[in-house]
Amino acid sequence: MAKKKLNIGLMGCGFMGRTHSNAYNKVNKFFDLEYEPVLKAACARPEDESKLIPFAENWGWQSTETDWRKMVERDDIDVIDIVAPNNTHHDIAIAAAKNGKIVLSEKPLAMNTAEAVEMAEAVEKAGVANMVWFNYRRVPAITLAKQMIDEGRLGRIFHYRAKYLQDWTISANVPQGGQTLWRLDAAVAGSGVTGDLLAHSIDTAVWLIGGMDSVTAMTETFIKERELQDQPGVRKPVLIDDACAFLARFKNGALATFESTRYARGRKNQNCFEINGEKGSIFFDLEDAHQLQYYNHEDDAHTVGWRTILVTDSSHPYMKQWWVPGCVIGYEHTFINALADFLKGLETGKPIVPTFRDGIETQAICDAVLKSAKTGVWEKVEG
Ligand SMILES: NC(=O)c1ccc[n+]([C@@H]2O[C@H](COP(=O)([O-])OP(=O)(O)OC[C@H]3O[C@@H](n4cnc5c(N)ncnc54)[C@H](O)[C@@H]3O)[C@@H](O)[C@H]2O)c1
Asked: Going along 332-378, which residue ranges are E strands?
């Protein structure tokens, strides 16, 4: 049967531009879907045009734009996919929704909760499908963890322990801002590791074990001043959080710790969590993404112990779409899995989580964390 074409307009051609372009190219090769994305147009800032043209040629984008406003008004675009820095998400998403486009946004959904609420209201008012790309939900081992928790295999949850560690800003010579280091510029990123890395850990945690009630946090900016990338010789204070650690109480009574930094020498992208329940525990580490560690207290006394589940079997989430048991998949597949879910959702009319409305919760938790780091007291997560 002929596929329904879905014309995509991609906003950004950097790191996420590549992962999403790859997903649009591959999704129909591996998943049986009614919809087929067409790579209609890719957009970047005018100053990035020299990267945009080869990017578009490489990935098969049919046309390019250097003004996002033009892109959201194009009649030949059905979907606006935002893979640009955080301070662009709000305005692009709202304009896209007003033009009747389906809207997909990279995380963090927005700069703060107020923006996220406006974005959710805009897509709901326009009645357009939407999703936040929290791609780690689509790591098969994490989806399996969700399945096991929902099946009651962990029982009552007591503890959640998450870490998201990197080490790329330790040198005081790393500049801030400009085209490639916007993550260090609070005006563009909104926050540091809280919005960039902990947003992932928080989204995963809330999805796995439910909502958060309150938090108490500390943050630190280890390098206080950095040179501006686009104004060599000019140094400005660094206003983002380099590191953040917080305690949380979940609504179900579970206690949690979250830690993130870009100063953990040797850790490149360690995103891991452990959950301890009455009947068992689970441990996951993105650096071993094809494995889920599981301890089942109900096992026989003489064989009980941590076991490693190799999440590559056709009975595991997403894996029957990929290779044969024992063959692992990688980072890029999480975006293809997410896209496949989204396209399936369009077929069935069922919203695919996390929607923009779901994304508000993670944003509210990030805001509470940053507030607590300033006030030094426990902060309630706003409903
Ligand atoms: N899901 C994940 O795991 C993950 C990983 C990395 C980044 N992200 C998110 O994806 C987004 C993009 O991050 P990245 O690492 O790809 O950034 P990047 O710096 O590699 O690329 C950003 C792109 O956005 C374009 N851009 C900037 N301003 C624009 C504007 N006004 N209009 C149109 N295009 C514009 C730039 O030209 C560039 O092509 C961020 O929100 C980030 O938090 C998510």
From this structure: none
